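Re: your question about Amino acid ABC transporter substrate-binding protein

S., sorry for the slow reply, the queue was backed up all week. Below is exactly what I fed in.
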Amino acid sequence: MKKTSQLLMAGIALAGMTGMMAGCSSKEKAASTTTKEKVILVGTQNDYPPFAFADEKIT
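Result:
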């Protein structure tokens, strides 16, 4: 009984470690050196400076 319990716990630990290592892998390539600048527009109220403000240079 004790040996079966130890074997079961070792199997669970091995499965957990395998799952953690699989979560660390990446199928995407590393970011290339030719990245484009992305603009993110956010809607907000401008009632509470300095927390929200309008940049007049961005259209």
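Residues 18 and 32 are 29 Å apart (CA to CA). The two ends are 72 Å apart (CA to CA).

Happy to talk it through on Thursday.
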